[in-house]
Amino acid sequence: MIIDALLDKQQKRLIQARARKRFIQRVIAYGVMIVGAVTMIAPFLWMVTASLTKAGDIVLGGRDWWQGWIPTSFIWKNYVEAFRVVPFLRFYLNSIFVVLLTTVGQVATSAFSAYAFARLRFPGRDQIFFAYIATMMIPGAVTMIPVFILLKYLGWIDSYKAMILPGIFTAYGTFMLRQFFMTLPSDLEDAAKIDGCSYFGIFWRVLLPLCKPALATLTTFTFMGTWMNFMWPLVVINSQEKFTLPVGLAYFQSLHNTDWTLLMAGSVMMIFPILMVFMFNQRYFVEGIKLSGIKG
Amino acid sequence: MRQKFQLKDRTKEALAGYGFLMPNFVGFLVFTSIPVCASMALSFFSWDLLSPPKFVGIANFIELFKDPFFWKYCWNTVVLMCAIPFSVAGSLLLALAMNQKLKGIVFFRTVYFLPTICSGVAIYVLWRFIYNPEFGALNAMIFKLGELIHLPLRGPNWLTDEQWAKPALIIMSVWQTVGGYNMILYLAALQGVPRDYYDAAEVDGANEWQKFWNVTWPQISPTTFFIVIMSIIGGFQAGFDPAYIMTGGGPNGSTTTIIYYIYNNAFQWHNMGYAAAISWILFIIVFIITVLQWRMFGRVVHY
Q: Best label site of A168, A208, B73, B293, fewest CB within 10 Å?
């Protein structure tokens, strides 16, 4: 009896100690996570607040310190003004056009070639695939210069083609989808083959529906990468009416160097669509990182 | 009869293979593999795009090794990589916290990802504002802190001071990368550590720190290694966008990186051959690191 009670007491103490430890652990973990979250969000708060402030207020001061972080005025006119001062709408449409064509082109051609590499046998396949992989570690700067010269000789500089075409054919997209195709079981295809399905039929009706997650991942990566791409459009585009958003914003900045409210309004508008895409495709994004372990 | 039939099937499959490969392969040839060869050839020429190219042998490379700016910009690139250890340590810390199976993980993950998602010109414009010495957020906070502890603290002219421009870019880069890809990779790695190992360590009476150091750390070392190598490879090719937007490569060239120098040579000054030569040096650096990675992978890390 007494021994039982003692044991019970000891056990209770042990459980209590463990619970306390777990509690402390949780508090620390939440502490780290909250500090991290505040650090990540703070600059964005600063940006949104500035974009809604009266232009003079930022430069002249007279605001309390917290007014830089939490909007106290809502001057939506800044956004209208940004659209008026700079052809943002045009930049938007250019960006959307370039991003859509690049993404569709990239995903389509990558899916075709990935299928060929993963499932079909033909002479030279492995050698070509090796060439694809080998070029993946070559810095973009190496190919950028000859491609620029090529486009110049084709007379394509300052055209949409120059922005879109080189972005479509990446070894990365092919590699990623091929890795995914390889993980799919081939039973279904064999069945389809016996039923007399053509290679295109197998690809289109059997394999593609199975690799929706991988396609979504590649789409998301390509979309975001192209949307943010700054250097290449900067290099190949000269005329303002073909600027994409990043180039347009940079150009806007060089003109209105200290017009912070407008600059912040422009930045918010550039970030907004990408944020939406991320929110809806977050799952694919995270899965994609785990899948490939390679940065898009 | 049967033999013939099989042969036909094979041929059909090969034809299909070439057909599927064709669209991508043509583009790959035109925009990747031929340019790689062309760039190699170009690095032995001197060419301003106006007069015909002139063969100069290895003169570009000799000039490059004598070019004090090249070395300075290499140094800049390496110094800016000081962000990597901070960023990786931060990613691990966040991943460890998130691995505690708490509520709201998805929310936190989304928030941490914001800087990575929004990377690009908008963010650099934003940080140029934050670093503004008079109206920027950072110096306002430093000033406020000084008031609280009764010290006249004044923040530096971040982006226009040669001493502070690099730290400014490093701080921003840590902010940008700490909650992104690396954290996700760490989180996946942490979730892959077998539960039994911790139980065994607990039976042996290990405390939290001992558990981390003897179980977690060795178990996730492949991930750490991968992240560090990829960050270094990326680091050598990084630095154009933020420097172009925030500092223009200045002050006094202190934020110009290798890639920025390539851009200037190729697209501002039209020294095409020289720019190609620099890009090949960059490639050789990346290549050496990659090969070292292959060599070391088995030895350093614990599986």
A: A208
